[in-house]
Inverse folding.
């Protein structure tokens, strides 16, 4: 039974990659999984619930490997380099297509919207933890909302992943701009104590 359930989860993800969310149904998922259509409803109750489970299962597997790599990141440039690598891997595996289709389906399906938001949070939490660690000794420590920044960075990468499909050169330019921002923060870290205090005072006034 467990094997059948996993086959349906894997089949759901592959069906979205192949047919898009509009072409994903109990019939097409069952055909991809090589099982009876009735097993979709036996194990999950509905196609929507199967897609929710598949979205979370696939994301948890990817985040587990990603979190290990995040733990070896020592600065913001390494974090962005890892983001670039992840972006390349996700696109090569067809996961960007799956994300785009889930986001599209979520616009009209509350269950898919909840599942997609939960899956995105699985990515965001380890990124937030990494930002907390990397910025702990920065002049901006305590002044930057790392939870908000983690969501902004994640949203930016999602947008760039989708943008790359229509304008790859422009997406690459945007990624280069993020790299330059990381360099700027490194320069801030190298400031002397007087300059650091002045910068923190300025940031507090802006905030």
């Amino acid at each position: 039974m467990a094997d059948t359930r996993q086959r349906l989860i894997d089949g759901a993800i592959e069906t979205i990659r192949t047919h898009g969310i509009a072409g994903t149904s109990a019939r097409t998922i069952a055909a991809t999984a090589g099982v009876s259509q009735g097993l979709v409803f036996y194990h999950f109750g509905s196609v929507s619930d199967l897609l929710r489970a598949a979205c979370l299962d696939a994301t948890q597997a990817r985040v587990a490997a990603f979190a290990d790599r995040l733990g070896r990141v020592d600065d913001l440039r390494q974090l962005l380099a890892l983001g670039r690598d992840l972006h390349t891997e996700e696109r090569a595996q067809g996961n960007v297509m799956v994300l785009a289709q889930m986001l599209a389906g979520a616009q009209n399906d509350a269950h898919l919207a909840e599942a997609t938001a939960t899956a995105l949070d699985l990515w965001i939490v380890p990124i937030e933890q990494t930002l907390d660690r990397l910025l702990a000794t920065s002049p901006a420590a305590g002044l930057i909302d790392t939870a908000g920044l983690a969501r902004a960075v994640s949203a930016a990468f999602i947008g760039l992943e989708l943008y790359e499909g229509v304008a790859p050169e422009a997406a690459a330019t945007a990624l280069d701009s993020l790299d330059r921002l990381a360099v700027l923060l490194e320069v801030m870290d190298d400031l002397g104590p007087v300059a650091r205090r002045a910068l923190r005072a300025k940031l507090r006034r802006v905030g």
Observations:
- The chain has a mean pLDDT of 82.
- The first helix runs from residue 2 to 19.
